[in-house]
Automatic annotation (TrEMBL):
Residue ranges of every copy of the Pellino FHA domain listed in the record: 41-231
The organism's place on the tree of life at top rank: Eukaryota
Chain coiled-coil ranges: none
Region annotated Disordered, chain positions: 62-84
Name of protein: Pellino
GO annotation (BP), single: protein polyubiquitination
Residues annotated as transmembrane: none
Low complexity bias (residue ranges): 62-77
Stretches assigned to the Pellino RING domain: 236-307
Organism per entry: Ancylostoma duodenale
Length: 312
């Protein structure tokens, strides 16, 4: 009788363990299903970094002074001393892209990444603070900037349409802030709660040294082919568009010219998107040393104008 009771107790214990194990595995599966898949990006080549990124100018071998894709000051590439060490401005653990396991179209950008011991790594000079809910947040030293394309603005009034090319900064916790006064300033920008860190097709991610373009599978499927772009370019050039200032015909060339393309080369104003030929109207230097280009059509001020060319 004692043996039967002991056996019964043992069976109950085994059943309890199986139930606990089943519940635990169910919780693990639910957690895995709920959690997202991170894609760490940075300059580091450590095992936990999925995508190792180097500076654009470093990859191209350029030693000239230039700026990154997003807003920021130009930086020297070693000056006249070819033996001077040139440091990268991309963080070792720059950012994370978190992708939903169930819906791969949902991807979110977060600043900073995990080091080898699975801790969020921020430099000593990085900005850190505690939010109202008691959680810590911060920014990388040079910042991770994000720029969403303006979409679905047809139903908005003219006053509600957002400005083109408005860069924002993403925090470690995924919150969106306005840009800091300088790229590595210790004072963070203002919180923009109505904007999201969810990536869209065409979103730009500026790592301060390289700029990434986010494309979705649906966006790539709907993108025009090289042949369709070629045909559209031929139709555009056949229409003989004219510069509103020089009143001459503009032609989009097949490749970029090192000489500037001449008077027929079209340029686009980045602030408003208007296209014109090369001229000096509205071009002036600001007090901080930067250049400004006023569009003759809408009078919007752009920090730069760039050539329009076809890349095959």
């Amino acid at each position: 009788m004692i043996l039967e009771n002991e056996a019964h107790i043992w069976l109950l214990s085994c059943e309890k363990r199986r139930t606990e194990w089943a519940d635990r595995m169910k919780a693990v599966r639910a957690m895995r299903k709920r959690d997202s898949r991170p894609e760490p990006i940075g300059r580091s080549s450590e095992e936990q970094i999925d995508f190792t990124i180097v500076d654009t100018w470093l990859a191209s071998g350029s030693q000239l002074s230039s700026s990154s894709g997003g807003p920021g000051q130009s930086r020297a590439r070693g000056g006249s001393d070819p033996h001077k060490m040139i440091s990268s401005t991309i963080s070792r653990y720059a950012c994370r892209i978190i992708i939903d396991r169930e819906n791969y179209d949902k991807a979110f950008l977060y600043a900073a990444g995990f080091d080898s011991v699975k801790n969020i790594f921020l430099g000593e000079k990085a900005t850190k603070w505690m939010k109202r809910n008691g959680e810590m947040d911060g920014l990388t030293t040079n910042g991770i900037l994000i720029l969403h394309p303006n979409r679905n603005t047809e139903e908005l009034s003219e006053e509600d349409v957002p400005l083109m090319y408005v860069w924002r900064e993403v925090s470690v916790d995924g919150d969106i802030y306005t840009l800091r006064e300088t790229r590595s300033s210790n004072a963070r920008g203002a919180l923009v709660p109505e904007e999201t860190n969810m990536l869209q097709d065409g979103t730009l991610i500026d790592l301060c040294g390289a700029t990434l373009l986010w494309r979705t599978a649906d966006g790539l499927r709907k993108s025009p082919t090289a042949q369709e772009l070629e045909m559209a370019l031929d139709r555009l050039n056949a229409g003989k568009p004219q510069c509103p200032v020089n009143l001459n015909t503009l032609i989009i060339p097949k490749k970029k010219s090192s000489k500037g393309g001449g008077s027929r080369q079209p340029y686009v104003y980045l602030r408003c998107g208007h296209v014109q030929g090369k001229h000096e109207w509205g071009h002036h230097a600001l007090s901080n040393g930067q250049q400004s280009y006023k569009c003759p059509i809408c009078l919007a001020e752009s920090e730069r104008v760039i050539q329009i060319v076809q890349y095959v």
